[in-house]
Structures are given as C-alpha cells and as structure tokens.
Amino acid sequence: MLLAVVGASAALVRLLGSCLARRYPITTIAVAFALARMIGLGILQPKFRLLGFEAYGLLYVATQPVVWALYFLVILELYSLALEDFPGVRRLGRLALASALGAVTLTCLVLLMVDQQAGIDPSPFLSYLALEERSVFLTLCGVTLLLLLFAAYFRLPVRRNVLILWACFGSYFLVNAALLALRWHLGADFRPLRNVLNPVCYGLALLSAALFVSPAGEIVTRRVRPVWGTRDPDLETALSLQLRGFNEALVKVLRT
C-alpha cells in the first residue's frame, strides 16, 4: 500500500501544483479520496472494533462504491475533455455512460445469480463484493476501450494530458480486471497476491501520471489514430467533417 500512497500523493501534488486541478476536478477528487481512504485503512489495519464490527472492514465496504463511482466519473471527465469541441456528441456520451452505471448494477445482480463460483470466500458477502468488483472493472475496461476506439476511428486531436491520464487509468483498470478474474478462477488462495499487486499497479499508474502530466500537456495535442491505419490527411479531413455534421445534428435533436 505504501507505493499506492506515494503515487497518489505525487499525482495530487502534480495536479494541484501545476494548477491542473481546475481542468481535471473529478480526477483530482478521485485521487484525493483514494489517498485519504488508503491512509484511513492503514490507520485501522490493527483489529480496531467499532460498535462490535471491525472498523477496517466497515470503512472498506462503505467507501468502495464511492471509489467505483469516481472511476466512472473520471472516464466521463476525460471523454468530455476529448470531445470539448463537439458538445452534441459529448452529451450523448454522457448519457451513455450514465446508463452504464445502471447496467453495471444490473450485471452484478445477474452474475450473482448465475455465477457458479459464488462460494470461494468463507463469507457470502465477501463473495458478492468480489463478484461485484470484477464486474465493475470489466465494465470500466470495456467503456475505456470503446471510447478509445471512437477517438481512434475519427482521428480526434486530443490534448496530451488527457491521453496520459486515459492511458494510466485504463492500464490500471485492465490489470485489476485481470487480477480479479484470476482471483475468481484460482480461488481465495490468490487473494493475498492480488491484495499486494493491486496497490502496486495503482501506485505505478499514478506515479506515471505524476511524471508525465504537465501544464505543457494542455497545449500539445496528438491525433489519436488506429494502430493498424496509416496517416491519410484526406481521410482525416473527411472523418472530421463527418463528426462535425453528426455533432450538429445531435445538438439540434437534444435541444428539442
């Protein structure tokens, strides 16, 4: 957990010190909340009890849904910044992501009923929590990938800081989803290793953000292109015009 605390502290100092917190308020709040949560959990690591319950477990369970919601809001913020010149498309994407939050809840309930490995933990509640966390991170991976494919298809010019944060959080979502899938298939014996690797990956992701995010990254833009494609100025112009036309149509529709 120490590396995660160091990474979150470094990322928070970078965002606040570089005056980027106003540009990325949700990301800043998410990092600050994660840092405060990790410090609180670290303080409560001993078997401290509150009202007859283990205080560490109470804090963990009570704050976990907030963490998940903030991850979705971070993706929404980065998506909105990548499409700040296309308000119609941006608004449609916000509606889609808001729907994804409801879809995650429904998916968790469905998986809880159909998954045949729901008893890998001694506690049924811990089994449900692990299943729900796996569903959340798989959904986060899917949403991040879809938004990246959308940006790559239309060759969107995106600010470097947005791409860096996108890569850092997206990498963490992917690695954690893989760890949760392994934990689910290998059983509770994999839990200690996953509990070590998860904060390490999170700390490395935030340290990378702290190292590469900068005020200059708000000036420099990079056009997102598919790895399998080649640079074609005519195609990029045509796709840009197509997206602008789609955006104008959405603006008219959403205003009515």
Main sheet characteristics: 2 strands, antiparallel
Fraction of helical residues:
over 70%
Q: Count of DSSP helices? A: 8
Strand order of the largest sheet: 1-2
Low-confidence stretches: none
Strand content: under 5%
Report how far the terminal alpha carbons are from each other.
50 Å
Oligomeric state = single chain
- Write down the secondary-structure element order: HHEEHHHEHHEH
Keywords:
256 residues; mainly alpha; two-stranded antiparallel ribbon; 4 strands; 4% strand
Can you describe this structure?
The structure is a single chain. The protein is mainly alpha-helical and 256 residues long. It has one domain. The protein is built from 8 helices and 4 strands, in the order ααββαααβααβα. Helix 4 (87-114) packs across helix 8 (233-255). The radius of gyration is 20 Å and the shape is globular. The model has no long low-confidence stretch (mean pLDDT 81).
Give a quick precis of the structure.
By secondary structure, the protein is mainly alpha-helical. It contains eight helices and four strands, in the order ααββαααβααβα. It has a two-stranded antiparallel sheet. It has a two-stranded antiparallel sheet with strand order 3-4.
What is the topological layout?
Blueprint: H1 2-17, H2 25-43, E1 49-50, E2 53-54, H3 55-82, H4 87-114, H5 124-153, E3 157-159, H6 160-186, H7 191-212, E4 221-223, H8 233-255
Antiparallel strand pairs: 1-2, 3-4
